[in-house]
Design brief:
The complex is a heterodimer.
Chain A lengths: L3 E10 L2 E11 L4 E5 L6 H9 L6 E6 L2 E2 L10 E4 L11 H11 L4 H15 L14 H14 L4 E5 L7 H18 L2 E6 L2 H7 L2 E6 L2 E6 L1 H6 L4 H6 L6 E10 L2 E6 L2 E4 L13 E6 L4 E3 L6 E10 L4 E7 L2 E7 L10 E6 L5 E4 L16
Chain B lengths: L1 H9 L2 H49 L8 H12 L3 E8 L2 E5 L14 H26 L11 E6 L2 E10 L2 E10 L10 H17 L5 H47 L2 H4 L6 H6 L2 H10 L6 H4 L17 E2 L2 E5 L10 E5 L2 E5 L1 H34 L2 H11 L1 H28 L2 E4 L2 E4 L3 H7 L10 H31 L6 H13 L2 H11 L6 H8 L11 H29 L3 H10 L3 H29 L2 H8 L10 H10 L4 H26 L8
Antiparallel strand pairs in B: 1-2, 1-5, 3-4, 4-5, 6-7, 8-9, 10-11
Helix pairs in contact in B: 2-3, 2-5, 2-6, 2-11, 3-6, 5-6, 6-11, 13-24, 15-19, 15-21, 16-19, 17-19, 17-22, 19-21, 19-22, 21-24, 23-24
The chains are: A alpha+beta, B alpha+beta.
The complex binds adenosine-5'-diphosphate and magnesium ion (MG).
The site of magnesium ion has 3 residues of chain A, from helix 1.
Chain lengths: ~375, ~675
């Protein structure tokens, strides 16, 4: 087991910089999730940690060792691939024991470890099968088994669940969480699914265009997104964002946008600078139906009843909005709805830099 | 209700089958009968004319007077003794040397008569042919036959006229002519078998329906088998009428010879001393066998060879001995021959019997063939199989329609030749006579263990196996090595290398073979030039086994590796790169990744390629034939090239066909076993 430290790590393919100046300290035993839209450089970052891609710039340490020039086989990491990458010509047993056999571990020890892993993953019955004869979920388990038996310093997962159906995904997610709790191995996990990120991570690293946007515990990212990108990316449905202007109305700072105007809450006032062009962010769950004194009035295009709540999708003078309403709401499609924001929960961002008021850019981000 | 209706419809199969059998018998009898009828007349006329010519030569060449007038006596006896012969004569220049009308002997032709003019012209033309043949033979001693006809047959009113040249060693002695009337026999179709078939069918339709299905099928099978057996037993009988008529002609000729005192006066067949050694019974027996011309129809059966003068030159003298001729292999025992200057005519009574026997077997085979077809129709029809096949053909007529060109092509180009080849393996062929020989060829091939002989089967098998294993091994290892190199993403200009490396494969292999053969030339070849340049000593590549074998091996390796390379490249590209990455992370170094991931994953593509490659190489005719040509002394020939030599250089078609069938069986066994072991074709059926 070991910590993983990335110091100013960049990756270029030709002229294309796909990972830019990443600083990241992953503590021993920590579960870190890299999350971000497709193509943002998550896999590349993970593959650099694995040693499958060269590091163009910066330094990577696993434990106390700088491993930039080490091949994957010497880094003591195990990786689970999105495609599982099971060896099609080998049985489950051989797949799982492959790494151990290469390391010339004594046969009884291999057998013990393989059976142990198979036991944990419910694969005991399948040890003689070939990958071709198994379901997606089973293959996924084999891929994990192959990683577990190695007892490596670091586990690396690259979107391991994205090829499973929704139900299996939830199940395997729990499985992975359990495994991590049990083994306590340092884990770097890549996904584009923020729910996976939120449920699994000790800490989440949000990336966009190769740049780390924010690093933090799941709830921290939810409550205090560092910028508009993180605000929009974390949370489902996404945070509503409106362009607003800061005005002082009778000494009281107020932000005004198209069809809405609210006073800046007390807690945000200290962060107000001389920037007047701001972005107001409010999560759908922090909007509620208002009979009198609404902050804004939306026209409803669509209702998504989910049982415990209803998502109303619509617009405020052409600006899209999503609100999470009570299940028994009388709002109808096509009709207007008056909405109030929970002013304690709103966010203000600098429209030019995208940063939350009072925040610095993350280290390494340009 | 419907059961009965279908039962009634089910009854058609026996009549259909019976009519097919009867129709087949009629067709065989008719085609054989008509063909024989025509051939018979022509042959009979030709052989009698030749007989006359021969007798005349005997007389003319005698130094003593013993044969004086024998031709005339023979000619005069002919119309009387041989049914259908109307006139016989021998002409020299413009004079009759002999004539069945004794009054015309030593008379001049009536030059004003058109018929006489035609005879004169024909005789001159044949005489010219004798000269031309002599010239041709002088120019080309290897020529095994007379290229210009020395016999002529033309149809005349109600019969034929046959002219034959009487010559001795290219020296013209005269021209014999026979005129015959219509064939002295009537050919009748065997209608009886048709009647029996019809009767059987009628009976069947009336009572067949009463029987339950299974016993009915049994009865039907028995009835058809009976019809077939009865038909094929009697069928040769009808044909033998024809033969009998022929025999009458031969007996007549013999009688005429006897009448002319020729049989008694006949000199011993070839060696007077040998003849004198025989006791009287033996001499008589031998003489009796001189049933003039009986062998002729046998020898040229199915081919009107007599018309082209080939008949008399079937056997050539062995070199350096022109009195004692080797009879062609396969000639029935008891045949005698008369030799004159390296040409021979065969006369044999035994041969006639043999011909009849062969004919009977022939015709019976046809009869049994039709019987089997009839039985199949009955069985398949009664069991509903035919109707199902018919329905499938109708239901999927579109598909079968599209397939039909391919089906016809396969049948004509593949199926028929293969079956013909296999059948040929059970025969022996001598000149144009093909005889059933059972397993003789196979036994001869497989029981010869003289490994010192380069044409020995087991020696050849060993060479072929070594050839195949070394080739395929080299193809695969070189192909795999290059494929792995080419598959490396880092390699620049991969496309260009790939094209260059595929070039040997794209060039027709005989061209490559000839180029390599040239390069291995002792004096002018590039290989020796290179060796000398390097300070080595140039080599006679085709003088001994190993160098010659290497030339083939090098050429075929050059030709063969691109295929394996392309197969490996394709398979390599289908291996997902993340498998390598997973193995790398798992701790596999470069060699371990190749050994544990690449190789096993190549196998599914490589094994079928190796099987195909092995089969191709096993039968790689072009390279062996063109590069080493079997040198030295046939040692580097492989099975397939030796099969070719057996057929086209050693003239043993049946033996060669049996050889090919054995090769086929070896490869079939090889493929079945490898398929079973590797399950290589399994993917296609999963
Ligand atoms: N081998 C490569 N060569 C060139 N570009 C690459 C290569 N691998 C990835 N990229 C680019 O790097 C960017 C990040 O890729 P990746 O890390 O796979 O994104 P993701 O966050 O979806 O996992 C993408 O734009 C991709 O096109
Ligand atoms: Mg990815």
């Amino acid at each position: 087991m070991a910590s993983v430290t990335l110091t100013d790590v960049s990756k270029r393919f030709g002229d294309n910089t796909v990972v830019k100046n990443v600083f990241l300290d992953i503590a021993d035993g920590e579960f870190v999730v890299l999350v971000g839209p497709s193509g943002c450089g998550k896999s590349t970052t993970l593959r650099m940690i694995a040693g499958l891609e060269d590091i163009t710039e910066g330094e990577l340490k696993i434990g106390e060792r700088v491993v930039n020039d080490m091949t994957p086989r010497d880094r003591d990491v195990a990786m689970v691939f999105q495609s599982y990458a099971l060896y099609p010509h080998m049985t489950v047993y051989d797949n799982i024991s492959f790494g151990l056999r290469l390391r010339k571990m004594p046969k009884p020890e291999i057998d013990k470890r393989v059976r142990d892993a198979a036991q944990k993953l419910g694969l005991t019955e399948l040890l003689d099968r070939k990958p071709k004869a198994m379901s997606g979920g089973q293959r996924q388990r084999v891929a994990m088994g192959r990683a577990i038996v190695r007892q490596p310093a670091v586990f690396l997962f690259d979107e391991p669940l994205s090829n499973l159906d929704a139900k299996l995904r939830v199940q395997m997610r729990a499985e992975i969480a359990r495994m991590h709790r049990r083994e306590g191995v340092t884990t770097v996990y890549v996904t584009h699914d923020q729910i996976e990120a939120m449920t699994l991570a000790d800490r989440i690293v949000v990336m966009n265009f190769g740049v780390v946007q924010q690093v933090g515990a799941p709830l921290e990212l939810y409550r205090e997104p560092a910028n508009t990108f993180v605000a929009g990316f974390i949370g489902s449905p996404s945070m509503n964002l409106f362009d607003v202007d800061l005005r002082a109305t009778g000494g009281e700072p107020t932000v005004t946008g198209k069809g809405l105007s609210v006073p800046v809450p007390e807690r945000l006032r200290p962060h107000l600078g001389d920037q007047t062009k701001l972005v107001l962010g409010v999560r759908p769950e922090h909007l509620s139906e208002a009979v009198d004194g609404p902050h804004m009035t939306a026209r409803v295009d669509m209702l998504e009843p989910l049982g415990a709540e209803v998502h109303a999708l619509g617009d405020v003078e052409g600006q899209p909005i999503v609100a999470s309403l009570e299940p028994d709401t009388a709002v109808r499609v096509g009709g207007p709805v008056g909405l109030r924001m929970d002013l304690d929960q709103i966010h203000l961002f600098d429209r030019e830099t995208g940063l939350a008021l009072g925040r610095q850019a993350h280290r390494g981000a340009a | 209700m419907s059961g009965q209706a279908s039962g009634r419809r089910g009854l058609v199969w026996l009549p259909v089958a019976a009519l097919i059998i009867a129709g087949g018998f009629l067709a065989v009898a008719w085609s054989q009968g008509v063909a024989d009828g025509e051939a018979y007349q022509a042959r009979r006329a030709a052989t009698i004319a030749r007989g006359v010519a021969w007798v005349h030569v005997q007389e003319a060449m005698r130094v003593d007077d013993a044969g004086e007038g024998q031709t005339q006596r023979f000619v005069e006896a002919l119309p009387e003794k041989v049914p259908g012969v109307r006139e016989a004569l021998v002409l020299k220049g413009v004079n009759y040397k002999a004539h069945s009308d004794a009054a015309l002997v030593e008379q001049r032709l009536d030059v004003d008569s058109l018929a006489a003019k035609a005879l004169y012209d024909d005789a001159r033309r044949l005489k010219a042919n004798v000269d031309k043949n002599a010239e041709e033979r002088a120019r080309n001693p290897a020529l095994g036959y007379d290229p210009y006809p020395e016999v002529q047959i033309i149809p005349v009113e109600g019969g034929l006229q046959a002219l034959a040249v009487a010559e001795d060693a290219g020296k013209y002695i005269g021209t014999a002519r026979i005129t015959t009337g219509p064939a002295p026999y009537r050919f009748e179709l065997p209608w009886l078998v048709l009647l029996v078939a019809l009767g059987l069918s009628a009976l069947w339709l009336i009572v067949g329906g009463r029987l339950p299905t299974r016993p009915r099928i049994a009865v039907g099978v028995l009835a058809l088998a009976g019809l077939t057996v009865a038909g094929s037993v009697t069928l040769p009988g009808w044909r033998n009428d024809l033969r009998r008529a022929q025999a009458d002609g031969q007996a007549g000729t013999l009688a005429a010879l006897d009448e002319a005192g020729l049989l008694a006066a006949q000199a011993p067949p070839w060696d007077p001393e040998e003849w004198a050694d025989l006791d009287e019974d033996e001499q008589q027996e031998e003489t009796a066998r001189i049933e003039a011309n009986a062998l002729m129809p046998y020898l040229d059966r199915g081919l009107n060879g007599a018309l082209e003068g080939r008949l008399v030159t079937i056997a050539r003298a062995n070199e350096g001995d022109d009195t004692r001729l080797e009879p062609p292999a396969g000639l029935p025992a008891g045949a005698l021959m008369f030799a004159a200057e390296g040409r021979a005519v065969y006369f044999s009574g035994a041969a006639f019997d043999a011909a009849v026997v062969t004919d009977e077997a022939d015709v019976r085979l046809w009869g049994i063939g039709f019987g089997v077809i009839g039985l199949l129709i009955l069985l398949l029809g009664e069991l509903g199989q035919l109707r199902r096949m018919g329905r499938a053909a109708v239901d999927h007529r579109g598909a079968y329609g599209y397939l039909s060109p391919a089906i016809v092509g396969m049948v004509v180009l593949v199926f028929i030749p293969v079956v013909y080849g296999i059948v040929l393996g059970f025969t022996q062929r001598t000149y144009n006579i093909i005889e059933f020989a059972g397993l003789t060829n196979y036994i001869e091939i497989l029981t010869d263990f003289d490994l010192g002989d380069p044409t020995n089967f087991y020696f050849k098998l060993g060479v072929t196996l070594m050839w195949t294993i070394l080739n395929v091994g080299l193809h695969v290892s070189i192909g795999l090595f290059l494929a792995v190199l080419l598959n490396d993403q880092m390699l620049k200009a991969r496309g260009i290398y790939r094209v260059i490396l595929i070039v040997p494969w794209a060039i027709p292999n005989y061209i490559t073979a000839l180029i390599w053969k040239g390069m291995f030339n002792k004096q002018f070849g590039a290989v020796n030039a290179f060796i000398e340049m390097m300070g080595g000593e140039s080599l006679s590549w085709f003088q001994s086994f190993w160098p010659a074998f290497s030339t083939n091996l090098i050429t075929n390796t050059w030709l063969g590796f691109p295929f394996m390379m392309v197969v490996c490249l394709g398979a390599l590209q289908s291996i997902p790169s993340d498998l390598y990455e997973a193995a790398w992370v798992d701790g596999a170094d470069r060699w371990q990744r190749f050994r544990r991931i690449t190789l096993p994953l190549l196998m599914p593509a490589l094994v079928p390629a190796v099987i195909v490659g092995a089969v191709w190489t096993f039968n790689m005719f072009n390279i062996i034939y063109l590069v080493s040509g079997g040198a030295p002394n046939g040692a580097t020939d492989i099975l397939i090239t030796d099969a070719y030599r057996w057929a086209f250089e050693r003239d043993r078609y049946g033996y060669a066909a049996a050889y090919s069938t054995i090769i086929f069986l070896i490869l079939l066994g090889f493929t079945l076993i490898t398929n079973r072991i590797t399950g290589a074709t399994k993917g296609a059926f999963e």
